[in-house]
Specification:
The structure holds three protein chains of three kinds.
Chain A: H1 2-32, E1 71-73, E2 79-84, E3 89-94, E4 100-105, E5 110-115, E6 121-126, E7 131-136, E8 141-147, E9 152-158, E10 165-170, E11 175-180, E12 185-191, E13 194-201, E14 208-214, E15 225-232, E16 237-245, E17 247-248, E18 254-255, E19 261-269, E20 284-292, E21 297-302, E22 313-318, E23 324-329, E24 334-339, H2 340-349, H3 352-357, E25 369-374, E26 379-384, E27 390-395, E28 400-405, E29 410-416, H4 425-434, H5 446-449, E30 459-461, E31 471-473, H6 495-498, H7 501-508, H8 515-526, H9 541-550, H10 567-570, E32 581-583, E33 595-597, H11 619-624, H12 640-652
Antiparallel strand pairs in A: 1-2, 2-3, 3-4, 5-6, 6-7, 7-8, 9-10, 10-11, 11-12, 13-14, 14-15, 15-16, 17-19, 18-19, 19-20, 20-21, 22-23, 23-24, 24-25, 26-27, 27-28, 28-29, 30-31, 32-33
Chain B: H1 2-5, H2 11-21, E1 31-37, H3 49-53, E2 59-63, E3 72-74, E4 81-87, E5 93-99, E6 107-112, E7 119-120, E8 129-133, E9 139-143, E10 159-163, E11 171-172, E12 181-185, E13 191-196, E14 206-211, E15 219-222, E16 230-236, E17 242-247, E18 256-260, E19 270-271, E20 288-295, E21 315-320, E22 336-342, E23 348-355, E24 362-367, E25 372-377, E26 383-391, E27 398-401, E28 425-426, E29 429-430, E30 436-437
Chain C: H1 6-17, E1 38-44, E2 55-61, E3 64-69, E4 72-77, E5 80-84, E6 95-100, E7 107-111, E8 114-119, E9 122-126, E10 138-143, E11 147-152, E12 155-160, E13 166-169, E14 181-186, E15 190-195, E16 199-204, E17 210-213, E18 235-241, E19 244-249, E20 252-256, E21 261-264, E22 276-282, E23 285-290, E24 293-297, E25 302-307, E26 313-318, E27 325-329, E28 338-343, E29 347-352, E30 355-361
Antiparallel strand pairs in C: 1-30, 2-3, 3-4, 4-5, 6-7, 7-8, 8-9, 10-11, 11-12, 12-13, 14-15, 15-16, 16-17, 18-19, 19-20, 20-21, 22-23, 23-24, 24-25, 25-26, 26-27, 28-29, 29-30
Classes of the chains: A alpha+beta, B mainly beta, C mainly beta.
């Protein structure tokens, strides 16, 4: 009897289990439209995900920190103005007492600062507000504002024509706005490089120089290049564009008094070289680009040394005498001091070949680097007092500004703007993200390739999959929360796995992050909202039509689109991913697999190039070139107008 | 090969564990000092340079403040000779080279600074010397001990080995045709050691090299093109400078302390001025000569590194971005590269040839753990540049090179080598049948 | 293309009209001519550095002359031609249309494979696969205040200058009868599109509404009812300037002032040929480029330049109420098959099927290019 009961129970159990399995398979087939998901072992793969974006860390309130960014010193040297973008404030500091004497609310993420020659007006770019605000310095009150392009960062006063003009680098819309200072109004919009970032007046003050932070999109084996855009703000014209070959992460630019030069710190990327190790600048190295505007020539010179690296050079300032340049290495917590006379001497004595290859010569920098001055965490922007005696260094991730005596190169003191945020895991995570010391010889930081947590738009060849195999486009970390798994193969179920020992083995070639660092990295990366795009304002008709296409179940000629080949099946809202790998017919000669993770689409328009190896330079190419057999969704029924509408919708996400 | 030659002390594992279990306190300011007797009798059997440098009776002691000669503890108690002390970064243990009997073999010993008997960590045939510690706690050392008449290219060159904490057997790291000696671990985690450039001319040029903690990426570090004669005992100063002893004779004693700047290692070699020598606490025992002193204060552990090798593999991949990127004159364009493997007695044998692509690049899959040489051949098959067998790849290692005798201290140009668009050409790999597989495309 | 040198033209138009009496060779006052005459032609070909004989389009702008050829975009700056071709990033070697953005100075170049923006030497390409461009075959480009418009073989495209977004217009979403657009031209308020077999369509830029102008008589080749609308539904070109829309066809020319259409045919007017390739306008004067020479007119006065047998050329001037006046000219176009023209203050540049021609206007102190030009002889096509 008992045996009978056991048999009945067992049989029932087996049947129930079989039924559940069959039901699960039916469910997976129904929901995904795919029969190839044998690797899915857990309901958790698809379920247990955020159902709304409001649940995601980046959508929730987070602590704000002083995070000093832009700096500018008044003409009399008595006041230092500091942009505190995370606080929506601008601070005014007494340069003698090093105390904050005033703070002013400036909505929209105040980032870049510029003063008129009299020091009466402070002009502030508001990165998230897409505007420039003018503040009267007497009261530090906003008195005017003007809209500019998307995500303005750098700004400079150019003493051309009457009241002077302002030139603004718009980092997301890839353009440069020229404004009149009085009245504050936009005069023109000029095409910049990719992510215009910093602006300075040219040596003679007649033009503005704008450096782009990103290298332009390059196809296949093309060498990428960032750009110095020379703008004539009076004529509203781009005068010239100088290539910074393999230049990247240029966040500063300045002119050199007495010489026809501009200097821009760069990261020299070597994304085309298989990453077999990190040493010897094999992945990136730090340098400075010397752009001779009189000749239209650019020479890139190393800041690194053979066995020591100074990652993420960012802000730069040159003494009024033109003798020395100070470059903040944000990943190394160092200010590098460059003797420009020695640099000039080297340039004059070097032949063309030496100048061309200079950036790769890691023994060269002692020719002109005369000091390395330690700073606090993440020195990003620098400014010199008008007399050149004090260098101000924004220590962004410890909420302070360091004052350095440029004569002794010793600290004078610090302006304390906040508590450093050490109790905030997001802030701690950003520190981990920004520091290069966890990489072999401090060669690079996470931020080197993921500025602001975004992507550099470059594809890399990691050797773990075989030299020359599985070349993968760098993916943005913005809007990543809830979009697991990670990596193009979808092999990493969590950020902890992604950033753990595997990361150390393949990329940093060093000790892996510790447990607390990994926790903090999680907190920081998941706090990053999706990338900003140029699309804003009310929905357009094209975007609405595009949404219809995205969710279409049939073609315009009446054919049903199979469930698994609809856009919204794999790119399922709210994050526009089903968290599953898919073969969309893009396996190339160098790929070991055709199955790639389904990326989320929030902010996708800002993440060019596209597809796993970055082969699609634009969203259009995903379907016009790389979807000939409708494997990446049924799309070939669309005419060009419909495809444009679909893309307009995607740009809106 | 190693299994045949090695027999390992079973107590090694337990000894290491025991050492790690205790946290003995060492007074601040203590020094570990290697001493040789002032009136040491010359060893009757100086089989090695080490025998000359560490004569019988030499010892390793711990001196604590106030650093009185009469108040020291002998760490090498019970050994016939000991020297080359190394203090672990935690300041708890000392490693040194020692021998139990005057005619015995040099081996690596470990002793707790807080007290205890020295324990032999190794039992290497031919001896072991010059211990240092990797970030993961592995002891790196050189073995066998170089014979006094061996020169730098003996039949059985000394190699570097790593003994993991609790590891059953040491793993060989270096595979060059020249002996490897005097390893020290840099703060960035690499092993800096002394070896020699292959003898294209005589005498061989002794210089500094680095290798990662798993034996990958052997690279020249300094001294390849400046100075001459023997060098040894490299050390990294707290400010990053590298010091070493140079000797113009092989007497083994004395010499000059030189230094190089890590910022430009091939351009900065010079004598370390006395004023620049780090001031050491005063300790002087008239009965002994001091050979070396080491501080015991805890210091920063070197950077670690996760090994990239796959020991299950028998091969690695080597690619060169531009074989014509060279300092050699004339810069004749290479059409093919012949890859050589070290044979016995300084000979080499060709493994095969690999074509050079239009951009000067090539890529080959080559046998692991064997010294490889390269000959760049022109269209007519003439050798235009040559590197005798001296570098190697570890199993599963991917090794990238910038050029062929390219200038030192270069970062690669940013371009994708054509060679990496094709699978690597298999060279000299022995298939399961025992035949050579795809020796030449 | 139809808006070539808009900025320059707008400023110079009034000055040209008020230039004052031109002295004809006979010494007779020529005050009634509302346009300047060309007193001399210079030729530019391979010897001068032009990459190809066949020149599709030309645009003079602020000291530079952009020349669209079958082998790339040449730019004459100073004494030399520099060539931007596919090796420099141009999307195709055959350059078909040119326009300058007056706000930025950027040049837009249409080709047989996409559109290009040339900005301070940097070439950025837009193709039908890489962007929202309707079709790779670009016939015409016009730059407005906030957008760039292109006429392509598959409709009209509009690229928003601020957002980079593309809008497409073709037979599926406008009144266009055919998608094959040959020309786009802008007035401050309206876009005009010359459609092959579809006449002219007009968009009210503010409202986005469309209006169609078709040839009421429905005959392509005949103008059965003069002045009733577009000369033909076959639009080969359209140019708007100073309140006047000029339609070119292979069957004549039409002029539209916003109220009335006026037709011009080879047999019923001094128009040199019904086969019109291109019309450049300055003020209210059209420079009509045909397969057999150039006719300049404001609708009442006419001047026609042709090559003459045996070398040199002819100039025929027709004033209202006066018989035609014929003159021999020492120089002529390099070829009478004229594909484009660009007018500046002192000169007019012509794209022809056999070289680039510079026409120096009478009474103007045109600066020499510095290029050693080929001695001018009338050439047959």
């Amino acid at each position: 009897m008992r045996m009978r009961g056991f048999a009945t129970t067992a049989t029932t159990g087996i049947l129930v289990a079989a039924g559940l399995c069959a039901g699960a398979r039916w469910h997976m087939l129904k929901m995904s439209g795919r029969k190839d998901l044998t690797g899915v072992k857990s309901c958790q793969t698809c379920h247990g995900r955020p159902r709304t974006v409001e649940e995601l860390p980046w959508a929730k309130p987070r602590p704000h920190h002083a995070s000093p960014g832009g700096l500018v010193v008044s003409p009399d040297g008595k006041r230092l103005f500091v942009a505190l973008d995370d606080m929506d404030e601008v601070a005014e500091v007494d340069t003698v007492t090093l105390l904050v004497v005033r703070r002013s609310k400036v909505p929209g993420g105040p980032t870049g600062l510029a003063l008129d020659p009299a020091g009466e007006h402070l002009y502030v770019t508001c990165r998230s507000g897409d505007r420039v605000a003018a503040l009267e310095t007497a009261m530090l009150k906003e008195v005017a504002a003007a809209p500019v392009g998307t995500a303005p960062v750098g700004i400079a006063w150019i003493p051309s024509q009457g009241s002077g003009r302002l030139v603004v680098a718009n980092s997301v819309s890839d353009d440069v706005t020229v404004l009149s200072a009085s009245p504050l109004a936009s005069l023109g919009l000029l095409a910049g490089g990719r992510e215009p970032y910093a602006v300075a007046a040219s040596p003679d003050g007649s033009t503005a120089v704008v450096v782009s932070r990103m290298a332009s999109l390059a196809r296949g084996d093309e060498v990428p290049a960032a750009e110095v855009t020379v703008v004539d703000p009076a004529a509203l014209r781009v005068v010239s564009r100088e290539r910074l070959e393999s230049g990247h992460l240029s966040e500063g630019i300045c002119a050199v008094p007495g010489r026809p030069w501009t200097l821009s710190p760069i990261l020299k990327v070597r994304n085309l070289v298989p990453i077999t190790h990190a040493a010897q600048g094999w992945v990136v190295s730090a340098g400075v680009a010397v752009c001779d505007l009189s000749k239209g020539s650019v020479v890139e010179l190393p800041l690194d040394e053979t066995n020591a690296y100074f990652a993420d050079p960012s802000g730069i300032a040159v003494e009024p005498s033109g003798k020395r340049a100070f470059i903040a290495s944000a990943g190394a917590n160092v200010v590098t001091v460059v003797d420009l006379a020695r640099l000039s001497h080297w340039l004059e004595t070097a032949d063309d070949g030496a100048r061309r290859g200079a950036i790769d010569d890691l023994q060269l920098s002692p020719e002109y680097v005369v000091a390395r001055v330690p700073t606090g965490l993440n020195p990003r922007q620098v400014a010199l007092s008008p007399d050149g005696r004090t260098l101000w260094v924004a220590e962004r991730l410890q909420d302070s500004v360091l004052a350095l005596d440029t004569g002794t190169l010793q600290p004078i003191g610090r302006v304390v703007l906040g508590d450093g945020g050490s109790n905030d895991p997001i802030r701690r995570g950003e520190r981990v993200f920004a520091r290069a010391s966890t990489t072999f010889q401090g060669q690079f930081s996470c931020r080197s390739c993921h500025p602001d947590g975004h992507a550099d738009g470059l594809a890399y060849d990691f050797d773990i999959d075989g030299v020359g195999r599985d070349i993968v486009d760098n993916r943005s970390l913005q809007g990543l929360a809830g979009t697991e798994p990670f990596k193009w193969t979808g092999k990493n179920p969590s950020l902890r796995v992604q950033c753990g020992p595997r990361f150390a083995k393949v990329l940093t070639r060093s000790d892996p992050f510790g447990e607390r660092d990994l926790d903090d990295l999680d907190a920081f990366i998941f706090s990053l909202p999706p990338s900003r795009t140029r699309s804003s304002g009310p929905w357009t008709d094209a975007q609405r039509r595009g949404r219809e296409i995205f969710f279409a179940t049939g073609t315009t000629d009446g054919r049903e689109i199979p469930y698994g080949l609809r856009c919204s099946t794999c790119h399922r809202p709210p994050l526009y991913t089903d968290h599953l790998p898919a073969d969309v017919g893009t396996k190339g000669r160098a790929d070991n697999t055709g199955l790639f993770d389904t990326p989320h689409l929030l902010g996708i328009a800002a993440s060019a190039p596209f597809l796993h190896d970055g082969r699609a330079a634009t969203l259009e190419e995903i379907w016009t070139v790389y979807n000939p057999k409708d494997q990446h969704g049924v799309t070939n029924y669309m005419n060009k107008i419909q495809l444009n509408d679909l893309i307009e919708y995607l740009k809106r996400l | 090969m190693t299994a045949r030659r090695l027999s390992i002390l079973g107590a090694c594992f337990l000894g290491t564990l025991a050492c790690r279990g205790r946290k003995a306190q060492v007074p601040a300011g203590s020094l570990v000092i290697a001493q040789t007797p002032v009136l040491s009798a010359a060893s009757s059997n100086q089989r090695s340079a080490l025998d000359a440098r560490i004569p019988p009776g030499s010892r390793v002691i711990l001196a604590s403040p106030p650093l009185k000669p009469e108040d020291v503890r002998v760490l090498s108690e019970g050994l016939a000779a000991a020297g080359e002390p190394f203090v672990t970064p935690d300041g708890q243990r000392a490693l040194f080279t020692g021998k139990k009997t005057p005619d015995g073999a040099w081996q690596i010993y470990e002793v707790l600074l807080g007290g205890g008997e020295p324990r032999a960590l190794t039992s290497m045939p031919g001896g072991a010397a010059s211990p240092a510690l990797l970030a993961d706690g592995s002891v790196v050392f050189a073995s066998p001990v170089r014979g006094s008449e061996d020169g730098w290219f003996p039949k059985d060159p000394a190699a570097l080995w790593a003994l993991a904490p609790g590891g059953a057997s040491p793993k060989r790291l270096t595979w060059g045709t020249a002996s490897a000696a005097d390893p020290t671990v840099l703060q960035d985690g690499r092993i800096l050691f002394v070896s020699a450039v292959p003898p294209e001319s005589s005498p061989p040029r002794v210089s500094l090299f680095t290798v990662y903690n798993d034996g990958t990426s052997v690279s020249p570090y300094a001294c390849q093109h400046d100075g001459s004669g023997e060098i040894g005992h490299p050390r990294e100063l707290p400010d990053g400078r590298i010091t070493f002893l140079s000797r113009t004779t092989r007497s083994g004693r004395g010499g000059v302390t030189e230094m190089i700047l890590p910022s430009r290692p091939w351009m900065s070699r010079r004598e370390l001025l006395p004023a620049a020598v780090i001031a050491e606490p005063l300790f002087d025992d008239p009965a002994w000569d001091e050979a070396e002193r080491v501080r015991t204060e805890p210091r920063k552990r070197p950077m670690g590194r996760i090994s990239t090798i796959d020991i299950a593999k028998k091969s690695g991949v080597i690619f060169c971005i531009d074989v014509d990127h060279t300092t050699y004159e004339p810069r004749t364009r290479a059409a093919r590269v012949r890859i050589l493997a070290a044979g016995g007695g300084g000979t080499s044998r060709p493994l095969g040839e690999v074509p050079v692509h239009e951009d000067g690049s090539f890529m080959a899959e080559v046998p692991a753990d064997v010294a490889l040489g390269f000959e760049a051949l022109d269209e007519a098959g003439r050798v235009v540049r040559r590197l005798p067998p001296s570098v190697w790849v570890r199993p599963g290692e991917n090794r990238g090179c910038i050029g062929c005798h390219e200038p030192h201290g270069l970062a690669p140009r940013n371009r994708r080598p054509l060679a990496v668009k094709e699978p690597p050409v298999a060279i000299g790999l022995v298939a399961r049948t025992g035949s050579v597989k795809r020796s030449s495309p | 293309m139809t808006k070539k040198s808009v900025a320059v033209l707008a400023c110079a138009a009034a000055a040209l009209v008020l230039t004052g009496p031109l002295k004809a060779r006979s010494g007779r006052p020529a005050a009634e001519l509302p346009f300047p005459l060309i007193e001399r032609f210079e030729h530019f070909g391979l010897e001068q550095g032009l990459p190809a004989w066949k020149v599709h389009c030309v645009l003079a702008d602020k000291g530079k002359v952009w020349v669209g050829t079958t082998k790339g975009l040449a730019v004459l700056e100073g004494k030399t031609f520099n060539v931007i071709g596919p090796d420099q990033g141009l999307s195709h070697s055959v350059v078909t249309a040119l326009a300058v953005d007056p706000a930025t100075g950027d040049l837009w170049a249409g080709t047989l494979r996409g559109l290009n923006r040339i900005s301070a030497g940097k070439v950025e390409t837009f193709t039908q696969t890489s962007s929202g461009l309707p079709n790779n075959v670009v016939y015409s480009v016009a730059v407005g205040k906030d957008a760039v418009w292109v006429a392509t073989a598959a409709g009209v495209g509009r690229r928003d200058s601020r957002t980079g977004s593309w809008s497409l217009f073709d037979a599926t979403n406008t009144l266009m009868h055919e998608p094959w657009a040959y020309a786009v031209t802008l007035s401050p308020e309206k876009l005009y599109v010359g459609i092959w077999a579809g006449g002219i369509v007009e968009q009210d830029l503010a409202r986005g509404t469309w209006k169609e102008y078709r040839d009421p008589d429905g005959e392509f080749e005949l103008d059965l009812a003069p002045d009733d609308g577009p000369i033909s539904d076959i639009s080969s070109w359209a140019t708007w300037e100073d309140g006047i829309l000029w339609q070119g066809s292979y069957f004549g020319v039409a002029r539209y002032d916003g109220n009335r259409w006026k037709s011009y045919l080879e047999k019923k007017s001094p128009l040199v040929s019904n086969f019109v390739n291109f019309i450049a306008a300055k003020g209210r004067v059209a420079w009509i480029c045909t397969d057999r020479g150039l006719t300049v007119t404001d609708g009442t006065s006419w001047a026609t330049y042709k090559s003459a047998e045996g070398g040199g050329g002819t100039l025929e001037i027709t004033r209202p109420g006066a018989p035609p006046e014929r003159r021999r000219t020492a120089t002529a176009m390099s070829n009478d098959f004229i594909l484009g023209a660009s007018i500046t203050e002192n000169e007019v540049w012509f794209a022809t099927s056999h070289g680039l021609t510079r026409g120096i206007l009478a009474g103007r102190n045109a600066q020499a290019t510095g290029v050693r030009t080929t001695p001018t002889q009338g050439a047959s096509r």
